[in-house]
Amino acid sequence: MLSITLGPLALPLAPVALLLSIALSAWLASRLARRTGADAAQADRSVMHAAGIGLLAARLVHIAGQADLYAAAPLSALDLRDGGWHLPSGLAAGLVVLLHALYRHPALRSALVAGASAGLLLWGGVLVWQQQQRPPALPDLELVSFPAAQPVVLPTLLRGQPTVVNLWASWCGPCRQEMPVLHAAQQREQARGAAGVRFLYINQGESAQAVQSYLHTLGLPLQNVLLDPGARLGPAIGSRGLPTTLFLDAWGRPVSAHFGVLSSVALETRLRDLRSLGAPGQRPPP
User: pTM value?
Assistant: First the structure.
């Protein structure tokens, strides 16, 4: 599952789970501290401080690892929607800050350990569950090519090259925002030939006429546009919101996914990961 729905809103699951885990940690730590007569406010601050430093470290290490991309677009470093975090660094930094708080405030040790443990269990549990829910391959959906209006079965399009599959609709504001970024990347990848990454744009639930009108207004000559008239692919992969972008290796297997707008830096980072996975002429990894 990539997203959860709250009325008309669709939110990415992983960040929501992280925020809820931090809130649970702080609430439980302060509540347990209050029960023992310790400083509940300090317990809350300690948890939030550890979480904040951990998130900052995770972001900075990710940015350092993609320094050339962020140097070309410095403001992208402030766009947290790109999903760019280095998890081991964040966990290590948060743990160091928490251990320092345990040393400085002995009366809070049991409360902080319990609060942090509960938050990590919730967050880790959601991440593990999310990984288990991800399908090993995309479903055998019959789509419609555009503009030829010929039926095609999705898995037959996913072999031979790493592939980016973008789910979109013309009424989706974030889709319109990221489409020029995707189109520019598609052009660069086509220039690479067989070594590049294939892009598929799968429209969700709209008619060919609506898609034609939108693409004409957009002024971007997208290639490999497909129609999913019943909007079945999104729910099949655990996402009920748009835009959703899937990244698949040269054997058609999902590598990662992103819900929401993709910045140019976030997209290029994931394309680099795809190119590093090997070519279809090689033996597929286990």
Answer: 0.78
